[in-house]
Design goal:
It is a single chain. With 128 residues, the protein is mainly alpha-helical. Helix content is 72%, strand content 6%. The protein has three helices and two strands. The protein starts with a strand and ends in a 5-residue tail after the last helix.
């Protein structure tokens, strides 16, 4: 849609149902990734602190390991940041390009999330 103004014609983007549907689907998928990351954050930190307390009680304080807080926090922040970046990048694109941007964001978030998950599990030695 083009609107004539004093400075000349400008293009106005209208929110279409397809664009909103893409945003909602991407938000749900990225919310799932965030939910899993929060679960890892709580689960890993709790389990590791319990393991460290057990080791301290039994005189094996040298075997204690620290919680990888930076990796866990980054793990939680990846998906919301990916959604915001994809939203900003695709805000003036047609629907087909918006889909490509959000699929790319989902792939990037998933790759980084799995890499951080592997890093966290490789740095811990609980029960082994």
């Amino acid at each position: 849609m083009t609107v004539d103004t004093a400075s000349g014609p400008t293009t106005v983007r209208v929110l279409t149902p397809w664009r909103i549907a893409v945003w909602v689907v991407a938000a749900l998928l990225l919310a799932y990734v965030t939910w899993q990351a929060v679960g890892n954050f709580v689960g890993v930190s709790t389990r590791l602190q319990e393991n460290n307390a057990f080791l301290a009680q039994n005189g094996a304080a040298a075997l204690q390991s620290s919680v990888p807080w930076p990796a866990l926090v980054l793990d939680v922040l990846i998906a919301p940041a990916g959604f915001v970046v994809a939203l900003v990048v695709s805000r003036r694109m047609p629907v087909a390009r918006t889909i490509v941007v959000f699929v790319t964001a989902l792939c990037a978030v998933s790759a980084l999330w799995f890499t951080l998950l592997q890093y966290v599990t490789s740095t811990l030695s609980i029960g082994s």
